[in-house]
Amino acid sequence: MEDKKKIILDCDPGSDDAIAIMLALFSEKLDVLGITVVNGNRILPKTLENTLRMKQFLGSSVPVYAGCVEPLVCNLIPERKPELPRVTKNDCHGDYLKLPEATIGAEHQHAVNYLVDTLMESDGDITLVTVGPLTNIAMAIRMEPRIVGKIKEIVSMGGGHIACNISSSAEFNYWADPEAAKIVMDTPVPKVILPLDATWKACISYDEAKELERIGTPAAKFAAELAKLRIEGLKVNDVSEHNFELRHTPGTVAEKVLYRYDTDRAPIHDALAVAYCIDPSVVTELVDCNVDIDISLGLCDGRMVADVHNTLKGSAPVTAKVALNADSGKFVQMLFEHLSKTVPVK
Ligand code: RIB
Ligand code: CA
Q: Which DSSP string do the residues of 88-116 spell out, in sequence order?
């Protein structure tokens, strides 16, 4: 039997993070060594509480580690961005997951120390799956640069090639700590980036959420509730997940078209990163290109630029792949299959 993929999941629950956690813990193909938590969708005490509620809800034994409370430096620059977390009018997360309060605790070790120690002691066979701001990962790299040679791969939900959500140019995870994202993207670690352009191609519809609910397991019912929360939240979200689609009729100039998504479906961004680790074929278009993160303040602050035109002309080896499309049907089926379970793998 194929060896399980060893992963550490770094997250900021978060409604889609919660579904990503369930997918990871129910997968027979993944060995989740630990879950590290970061400030992001909400302040760390809340993202940590939500992670512990998920661990308790699933009956998992996977250790949870509390990570960085603040981004590296970005909120030292007042005019750069409002205080994090930026909660939008009809946010699709909520402060706390609607689960019983956690009566379990996190490990005593800080997430950054856990990342450094675990990676340095490893055989270089651990994949980091990141579904929140990259503060913990960047801090670990700064603390012990040698971990760069020990990380097998980074699979990261974040960025937007054409799509954006938190500003007119950026996606939340990389915008929330641009310097951290740049530190991570500048490393030679093999990376697979799952930006909004891919996650918006793997939505779950309201009808599919009701089908998920009918499966009847605790995980499926909770995931259905979260999916509906996301569909409703994104409908009138004031920092809307505007999507752009580059429509290119041969012989004409590509036009960048702003369109509002169908309002009866929503992406489960973070779950696609885990789904990719389980079955890479869920991503149907991967472009080999490096990415850079804009840290120059202003309108492009936190923007991920995927160098699809190879503008850097080989000035650095290409170590990243950027997903631009996904198989929505396969993604939803993976959710149905895994969330039909009742006992996590560990
Ligand atoms: O932009 C989407 C990302 O921001 C997801 O990880 C979501 O959980 C939020 O953190
Ligand atoms: Ca997240």
A: -TT-SS-SS-SSPPP-S---SS-HHHHHH
- Burial of 222 from C-beta contacts in 10 A (0-12 / 13-18 / 19+): buried
Residues with a known catalytic role: 12
Q: What is the pTM of this model?
A: 0.93
Kindly provide the b/e burial profile for residues 149-168, where b requires at least 16 CB atoms within 10 angstroms of the residue's own CB. ebbbbbbbbbbbbebbbbbe
Give the residue carrying structure tokens 């060594």. Answer: 33
Please give the full DSSP string across 10-72, using - where no structure is assigned. EE--SHHHHHHHHHHHH-TTEEEEEEEE-SSSS-HHHHHHHHHHHHHHHT----EEE--SS-S
- Residue 2 CB: number of other CB atoms within 10 A? 5
Q: What is the pLDDT of residues 315-346, one digit of tens each?
A: 788 999 999 999 999 999 999 999 999 999 89
Query: Which listed ligand is nearest to 272 at the C-alpha?
Result: 1
Cα–Cα distances in Å, from 211 out to 204, 205, 223? 10, 10, 11
Query: For residue 171, which atom of ligand 1 is closest to its CA?
Result: 1
5-339 placed in CATH 3.90.245.10 = yes
Highest mean pLDDT among 89-103, 134-148, 314-328: 134-148
Tell me the per-residue pLDDT of 183-200, one tens digit each, with 9 for 90 and over: 999 999 999 999 999 999
Q: Is the CB of 173 under 6 A from ligand 1?
A: yes
Centre of ligand 1 from the C-alpha of residue 158, in Å: 7
Q: Are strands 203-205 and 265-267 parallel, antiparallel or unpaired?
A: antiparallel
Report, in angstroms and rounded to the nearest whole number, the Rg of the chain calculated over CA atoms. 19
Helix (H, G, I), strand (E, B) or coil at 203: strand
Cα–Cα dist 121/24, whole Å: 23
* Most ligand 1 atoms within 8 A of CB, residue of 157, 167, 240 to mutate: 157
CA distance linking residue 17 with residue 23, whole number of Å: 10
